[in-house]
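Much of what follows relies on a compact textual record of a protein's fold. Here is one such record, which you should read through line by line:
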Amino acid sequence: MPEAGTDNFIFRIGDDLCARFPKAAWAAGTARREAAVLPRFSEAPLAVPEVYGLGGPGPGYPNYWSVLTWLPGTPLEDGAGEDPAVAARQLADFFGYVREVPIDLRFSSGPDNNGRGAPLATRTAAFEAALSKLPDVNQDWAKRLWTQSLGAADQTEASCWLHGDVHPGNVLVQNGSLSGVIDWGLCGVGDGACDLLTAWAMFDRAPREVFRSALGASDAQWLRGAGWALSMAVIYLPYAYENELRSDMSERMIDRLMEEFA
């Protein structure tokens, strides 16, 4: 079956632990980043993994790797929650908590977290190159939304912590309600609008509006979030098609963006 992720090989260790081995060259540093940052979010309103240990490079594996607690639950993409509006409010509360944790500039967005939370303009070259490989995507519409997103700066917003990759595969559900958020390897300190990509990765219009209202996102931040969602989908799709990976979430993100920003 197609692989579900692109960053790590994950192995269960009994019932309560898992080992994570970065498998992509650009993700080689994510285990150390995740292990250093996760303890800061132990009081989050949704559960996050605890760090059990960090392994170093050795003869059989060249990178750092980690052992984390295995959180109970089912990925949202496999076991949908009962009420999307409730899930939207839960995630808004989660992001609100993350944004209030004191920042640590050692984890500022950059190459170590694949630029999550960096200025959107740093993604322009990759976005334009990927878009040219997607003839089924409306080129004029995508370029127009990208330009609008780039222009939506807000000088009053301070940098904050961000997860950087909250999508249905990284959100856990138990008994119909969200229960945890996993895969923190791309977290960092930067533009919180990066985490708003979640809105289009997870929600149709009505719960998406609940999410925005509960989080209190400004017009500028929301538009930058749309730019993040657009660039994530567009940049990923050629890679997914070439490597026969799942593409449905990214395609759905583009559909939702087109509906909202027609």
The two ends are 35 Å apart (CA to CA). The chain has a mean pLDDT of 93.
